[in-house]
Structure formats: structure tokens, C-alpha cells
Amino acid sequence: MIFTAASYGQQSMDFYGLSSNAYNSRFRLNSFESNADNFNGSKDWELSVSFSGVNDENKSGNINAISFSKRISEHYLYARYTPGYHQQFIFNSGVKLVVSDDIDVETVLKTYLDYQEKFGFGYSYQFIPELNAGFSFRYFTQEFEEEVPEPFFSDTLNYIATKTETTTSNFWRGDLGITYSPNENFRLSVSSINLFTPEETSTAEIAKNFSIKKTKGFAAQLSLMPLEKITTTAVYESSNSFLLGGNFAADFLGGVFTFGASVFHDKYQHPFIAGVSPFINFSTELYGITLSGVKYLNDRQAPQTVSNLMERGIHNLLNNNFSYDRLTLSINVALSFLPAQSVKFIDVELKNEIYPTLGDVYLNNPFAVARAVNMTDKTISVKPYSFIKEINSENVYSPVVNILPYDTANISFYTVINLENLKIKRREIAQANFYLTIGSNSAEDQFQKPILINDLNSWDGNVYNLRYFVKRDISFANQHSKLIIKEKKEEIESGKYKSEIMNQVKIIFDDFVKKMKYISDPRASVETVQFPQETLQLKGGDCDDLSVCFASLLEGIGIQTAFVDYKNTGGVSHVSLFFNTGLTPEEMSLITNNDNKIVVRKNLDGNDELWIPVETTSLTDFETAWSVAAEMFNREAVENLGLAKGSVVIVDIN
Amino acid sequence: MKTLIIFLIAFCSLAAQTIIVEKVSGNVEALIGTSETWVKVKAGQTLNGADLISTGKNSSVRLNSSGNKFVLQSNSALGIKSIKKISVKELLLALAMEEIRNVPDTKGNSTSRNTAVYGGSVNKVENELVKSSELGIKKLNGAKQLAKNGYVESAIVVAKETYRKYPETKNLIGERIYFADLMLQLSLYNEAAAELAELKQMNLNKKEADEVELRLEKINQELAK
Description:
The complex is a heterodimer of chains A (654) and B (225). Chain A is mainly beta. Chain A folds into 3 domains: 291 residues, Porin, CATH 2.40.160; 111 residues, Sandwich (Immunoglobulin-like); 193 residues, C8orf32 fold (Roll). Chain A has 11 helices and 33 strands. Chain A has a 14-stranded antiparallel barrel. In chain A, strands 19, 20, 21, 23 and 24 form a 5-stranded antiparallel β-sheet that branches. In chain A, strands 31-32-30-29-33 form a 5-stranded antiparallel β-sheet. In chain A, a hairpin with a 2-residue loop joins strand 5 and strand 6. Helices cover 44% and strands 16% of the residues of chain B. Chain B has 7 helices and 8 strands. In chain B, strand 2 and strand 3 form a beta hairpin. In chain B, helix 2 packs parallel to helix 4, helix 3 packs antiparallel against helix 4 and helix 5 packs parallel to helix 7. The longest helix of chain B is centred in the C-terminal third of the chain and has 19 residues. Chain B is elongated. At the A-B interface, helix 5, helix 7, strand 31, helix 10 and helix 11 of A face helix 2 of B.
């Protein structure tokens, strides 16, 4: 998807049928009108020429418009010359001069109204890939010629000559626009209409009566991609005019073939649906050919009155009450001195499903790895980014990867999960969008792949990742544990252990287990873990839930904990808990006479500390839970060498 | 001597799980499983792998498992689970396991943890430090008896565990040299070198320093081969 330029404010009707879409990102178009965000795949220079044939016997085909554009990084410059944006009116008025009672002299006077949009230019800037903004200025000329009678009288001959009086009323039109497109399925543009219209003031009556109307307003355009390759667009203008269009794009002969149509309602035209604008287009990296047109649904050949022209006026030179059916052939050529595409995806491999609660995991471990190829003869720095609308609030950039000329490389994609704005309630398939950029924020290539997003309680079975469930409710756990400690302060001070931490843990554990029941996980294709607050509210859980909850209660008050992962003990995996007493081995007798019940572990400073195992599913009391856990640890981890063989793993929650 | 050889061979297959106390002399006690209380050991009692048996001064106990016998001499302590033959490979796994257990894993998170503990002063109760070195020394005695009875690998495991749980025993230089020698006996040069290097950093008398240096030189020669 390439949104290369910003909005240009315009009244929306042109002859391209709202034809741009995300799929045909190379579509080349030289219109400001229906292309409010100036959608264009240009990477460098681009030349566009369009020819137009009008269903008017007085007119023949001619050059409609010529435009140049140039991209410089995030800047986009555009200029066009529009000889075909031209409309003329001629009307006659009969004049009779009464010379004497029996002599009248008659003549016919002509009035010429000539309107032209001469040229225009625009500039836009891409702030971020999702947001463009820009402005456009166009110059219009209006020339009004009136023949006025100049009677001549003599003895033998009375006649009326005519002379021509010319009035000009040229003006500029400037507009602003902005486009927001968070992904290829959605694009919203808002632009002004006649925001700035500085003009040469003319006091002539004819200029007042026939000048192009410059009613201020705005246009809003919404494009949606409900299905791949199909785009629908709606445009609303503040004058209560609208356009509705759609198009379909498909790969064809190495390019993209697109066809579609729009219908429009114009407040100043009849009938309600004033016309239809179909188009077909074929675009490649280097050129695009578009055949488009407009067919009005009323009879445009019927003569109309001057008063009608005065009343309705002209609001848009391309499309007004007096426009004729038109056929336009546009040829666009990319004059790129840069490689058309520097880097290209070969494939993207998804490394894992997404478990939203394990957010930090995807900061350190790629959730996908792409294979990409450098298509140039120079080393390029590829800046990758990805977006999954269900979990990301914005594009997530991954580290830059340098790829040698014509070489391939693996590109890792990391992601940041926005838990605050998570858009899923249950497991679902989402579309992961991957992009490769070089230099600018414009994507050189994109790739889309479905990915499974699990719900918040889903767990990947890796005990290392239980820490994320422990930490999620840490504030709640802190309050919960503090409350228990506060209520049982005396019990702690006079506790059976000569260690305050031990007495705190005992009190919290005994309070915890008397409320709990062991409840197995529901049968499901994915393991789930309750958050600590949920476990306390539900008053139960399995070993994962209970260990997570109790660990959170201890961590909440600064007591260090670790999970003990017993892998497939007797065919069933089990998770138990350690906590750090903060005591040294020399202080062992403060808490126990039995060294089978403690585990000595070094802290980060290299000093030994005593850790205590606790079996949270032993819903009896602290001492029993300690003994049960110690027996299991000594049997599985020590005697059976589980720690060395990897069947028992200690995972610190830090 | 003949009796001793038969005795050693007989105990090589002694199972660690269940042992019957055959004869008790003097003060012999045991910690059963995860119990906090020492209980008197009586002849005919059955002990399990998780139990710890301890003998007092001038005391001993004879253990029997399916006809295999082991006598624990005075002032010694031994976990029943230790009385078993393990391979050198299992010994190496057990030594590696100590490292795993000792070093908290920081994978994926290098941030320092909050060490604040709610509730103010914690952990230490003043003037209540208990000198538990007596049990540690007993355990080293027990380990030495394991080695002498042919359970060299198990003896090394017990010694290393004792040093960790009872750090005061690390100051018993002679004992440490003894267990380093057991490692050399099993050709565990790197493990022995690490132990001796640690000893070298301690305050050794000349005799001890010479003994350590002698062994280190021997290890270097072996490693250079």
C-alpha cells in the first residue's frame, strides 16, 4: 500500500470514477478532483497526458491536461497544465434601435463567456505512513466579451455597428486537505472547497452575473476495502452533493487491471443522479493507461436559457449543468531514475501465535521472520514495520536490516501489544500486515498473512511466560497482601518463625488457601491462566492459576518468587513455587532444622540465599504446602537429577 | 581386610529408597522426611530416602537393605538417599545442577528488580543466629564414610551440597582437599582444579598451601597430556 501524497481540496467529480484503491497502488492519476489524497505510486518523476473527446459537435478532441510530479522523500510536488479545463458560452441578443417613427434598425449582439483553469500546483507531506496533508493552488481565468451597439446615422443611411467590451475576472483557488489511512482497508480524506479564492475584482455587471461560483465548503471521502481487491468509496460535499463508487482490481499481464464506476448527485444538476462515470485502467511499474468518461442522464443538447446560466451558475469547470458527455484517455509514464522497487518479500514465516498478555515477549522475540530480496546493485538498508489492527495502535517498526546487492536476508518483525485498546474478546484470526521501506516511509513492498490472536487468558504453555500473568495485577496483589499484613500484624510479629518474611508468607498463604478450591482447566485447545484478581474472585483454579496468584501476592510486597516447572512428571506437567526468604544459609535454623526443606540459590550479587518451595495446590496450611513442595523438589529435581536433565526448571519471576 | 572388600562390594547395589536399621549403638537420631524434629532411631526401624540419620559421640548405626550393610560411625550424618551408587556422568550432572540451582535466571529481563519489602525490617532476628556447623561437619564425616565404602561419586555430591548449605564447613581445609582428591581419583580435573583454585584464595598455612599447589601442578600435567 502506498499513500504517497496528501490531500488536495477539490470538488470531487472528475472522469476517473473514484478509481484508485490500495491494491492498485501503482495506479497513476493526474487528477486532484476524485483523488483527494493524491493517491499515486510515483517514486520519482512522473509525466501524465490526457486527451479528451466531448460529445459536442462544436468541439473535437484535444489535450485535456498535462502534469508533472516529483517525489523527494516524504515530500511530493505536483504541477499541471490544463488546456482542456475550458468552457465557453456564446449567446445572442437582438437589439432594435428606433431611429424615427417609421425607421427601425435591428442588429444581433453576441456575448462570449470564456472560463479556463490554466494551471495548478500542489505540495504534500507524509508525516507518518498513515497521515498525509497538503495544499493545492490553481489559477482560473474568466473573460467576458460583450458586443455593444454603436449606431451611425446619416442622411442616406442609418446603421448600427458593434464594438466589443472585454471584462476579465481571474482568480486563484487554494485548498487544504488531509488523509488518514491506518491500513489498506480504510482511508478517510477531508479537504476544503474554495478555502482561498483571491481574485481580480471587477465591477462589471457581467462579471458579477456569470463568474464561477466560489461557495466555500468541504468534501469528505471515505474508502473501504471490504474484500480483497474491491474498493468502495463515498464522497460527501457540504453542498449536499455526493458520489458513490466502487472498483475491482486484479493482476493482469504483469500489471494491475482495474475497472469500476461512480454515480454522482450534484445539487446544481438534474436529475437526482446526474450522471455515471465508468473507467478502465491498466497500470504497471512504468506506465498506466486509463479510459474513462462521463454520461449525463439528462439531455445535454437541449438549448438552455441565459437566465438558467445566471441562476445556477458554474461551480466546477469539469462538471456542471452545461457539461457534455465526455470520453478521456489518459497516459501516464513514470520517469523514475530510481529503481522501481528496491526490496521485495519472498515469504513471511509466522513464528508463533499471538498471546496478548505475553506482550513483552514479542519485543524480544520476533513473531514473524520474512525473507526479502534486494533487487538493486547497491547495499540497501531496509526498515521493516508491521501492523495488526487487533493488537497494535500504530505501525510497529523493527530493526533495520542491511541487504547486499541482489542478496536475500531474513528480516525479523517484532510487535508491541497495546493491551489498553485490545480489540479482541476471544481467539480469532487477524491479518498481519508486513511492510518494507527504504529511506522514506513509503512501503516498497507489503505482505499480508493471517495470524491467530489468542485471548488475554491464553497461555503458550511456557512457564517463563507465566510472569506476565503475575505482573498484570501486581497493584491489586500489593493492596491485597498489605491488607492481610495490616490485619494480622500481631500474628506476624509473634509468628513461629524468627524471620518476618517467613511469618508474612505464612499468614498470606494460610489466608489464601482457606478461600481456594482446586479447579481444573476447562478442556480447550489452548491452555488458559487466570489473572490473580480473577483467581481470588473465583476462589479457585488449577496449579498455574494458584501459583500465579500466590506469586503475585508475594511479588506485590517485594518478596522474590520463582516458578518450578515440573515437565511431564507422571505424564502431567506441574507448576509449583519458590520464594526467597532473604536469609543466608548460616541463618537456616531461624526457620528450619531440616535442610531438605530449603534450596540455596545465589542472588545477582553472588551471595547465597535460602529459598523455600511451596505447593500452592496443597490447600491445607503453609507448613504442609512447604513440606509437600520440598519432598517433590528433592525427589524430582535433586534425586532424579531433574534440574540437570531439564525435566525440572526454575523460572525466576523478575 | 577381606571382610572390608566383601562389605564394599555388597553395598555397591544398596538401594537408596528403603533401609532397615539393624543395630543401634549409643545416641542415633533421624529427621524423617521434612519433619522438624529429631527422633531416636531404634533397631528394626525402616528409613526412607528422604530421611537423614545422625550419630552422636561414641555412637554408630548399622543399616541393612536387602542384605547389604552399611555402618555409619560416630559423629556422622547421612541422607539415606545418598547411600547409592551413581555414575560419573550422574555426578557431573549433579555438579552442573548446583550451578543451575544457584544462579537465578534473568533471561529476557535485564532490569533490576524492586527489592523493597513491605513491612520494614525483615529477615534477621537479632542475636538468634544459629551455629549449625555441627550438623555440617557430621555430614562431611558421613560423606567421607560414603567414599570409603565405595560411593565416591555420591560422597562428592554430598560434600558439595554440605558446603553450600553449611558454609562454615568450607573452612575445613583438610576435608576439602580430601574431596578434591576424590575428584582427581575420578579424573575430574577441571572440577578438582576449580575446588583447589577456590582453596588457594583462602588463608592457608604453608603445609596446606603446598598440598594445594602440588595438586594443581599435577592437574596441569594431566591436562597438558
